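Figure S4 source data
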Amino acid sequence: MIGRAPDTPDTETWLRQILRGDSCRSDKEFVLAGNTFAEIYAMARELRELFSTPACREEVICLAAENKAVIAAAVLSSLYGGPTLLLPFAFSGRALAEMREATGFTVAISDRKRDFPAGTKVICPEPGSARHVHKLPPIDPDAELLKLFTGGSTGTPKSWSKTADNLFSEAFYLTQKYQISSKDMIVATVSPYHIYGLLFSVIIPLISSAAVFPGTPSFPAEIAAAVIDNSATVLASVPVHYRILRGRQTSSGSLRLAFSSAGMLPRADNEEFCRRNDVPLIEVYGSTETGGIAVRVRAEGGEAYSPFETVDWQERNDNLYVRSPYIAPDAERDKDGFFAANDRIESGPNNSFFLRGRSDAVAKVGGKRVNLMEVRDKIKAQRGVEDCFVVTMADSGGRESIIAALIAGEVVDLKELKQNLMEQLEPYARPRLLKKTANLPLTAAGKYDLEVIKRFLAG
């Protein structure tokens, strides 16, 4: 297989090592001040036995738990030969109903009462006692392990399949590359129902025996307390959280690794975090469908992204194409196995590349091509603008597209901003609809919530 990490045994060998728990001490905490590895493995085996009974013999099971120990046990149970897990983008009744309609699931794993669709059988696992595994079932690294669901602007959930090889080979690579071990304690501020959060708060701990913080802190004081009070060594966060951490000390010296993913991180936020905490910030570029692709470390002089050693990449007509073991099996590839990442790039030195915006950021307005990212950059450069999101929308008559922008910044003067944009943009590229808000709405994964933004602009 292409792109295998150096010194990595074959997939089935190290998956069997994980299932046996060879790399972890049974009495060590998986969740800080919570369940041990032994309890998680026992829970996983009990789940697997339950799934084999006629009452729970399902092809897919909805996983809707917040306890990371339960999530880890469910993932292990699927590795043990259990059913495919469905990971919803939200736990609301509406989101679960949409996922039921898309998949037909009738069994769910949860750690609390939720608004599941009528007729759902809910399993609430409890930690058990450790039991030795005498015989492991056959393992197929390419079998579907889980489906990650994301909410779309249409409200219809979109899913991406992930195999054991997709998830565990990426986690194994990151564990090796950054030498994550049982001495580490990880704080993740992104939900484990997002690919990035799942890797850092469930899969990597299973591989490395690192402990993980039980919650998912999102406010500045919560994040700082989680890192400082627990002597965290690894922080996995998202751009919006690094922004709200500006001006705040986040580590007392224990932190050695900080990661940012799920969006572009402004340079000022990067520099502020590194200056205050004396730790380089590693920006990870990737997506749910591709897994991780590349990283950059601006504190070390890197503006370009350096691809993982496990990823092959090509530039075709200024667009990025990638090939790696992490790409979802249902992602469309060309005959050579390359996937169009939908981002524009420019080649850099030493096998690196610069990101130049989304390929789909070019829209037709009045018959003219407009790069929405360039419009966004012009707006973000205006006085008082903290952030903004630019979209195209149908006009009131529904006959043509107009450019609209939602702007974050309480002191922004929209009249002044419009005047400045008249001088900087061609008439067809100027937003015809401008609204401002204190903060741009975000999803649980820390990404811009396009559905909410469009409703706000249309209201």
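Figure S5 source data
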Amino acid sequence: MERAGEGVIVAHGGSAIGYSLYIKDDSVVFATRQGNDTISRVAAPVSKGDSLSIRAGLSKDGVLSLAVNEGETVNAKSPGLLKNHPQEDLSIGHDDRNPVDPESPTKPFKGLLMSLKIAVE
């Protein structure tokens, strides 16, 4: 059974390449996919409270980073930047068609998204 607030916040891409940010099992997870079997993840616990501020990133040198409510940044290694532009649509509040991360929730996000900013630097 999914908890309130669980689900995919944003996903872009699918089973070949892309990224996904979701909440599952009391954690925020940022995942990238580069090929059918190359999925990198970083997770941070969801802090208590009614709202979350989440900052996730992927650096040129292949470091996934994730911070929740301006807490300590958690890092994980990945193969690097996405080699191609994701071919599946940008999805907000769910992950359309083929999921970027097969471990992500399958039902739509059950929270309220107040603001979302995606930047490519």
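Strands lie at 7-13, 17-24, 27-34, 39-45, 54-58, 63-68, 74-77, 90-92. The chain is about 0% helix and 40% strand.
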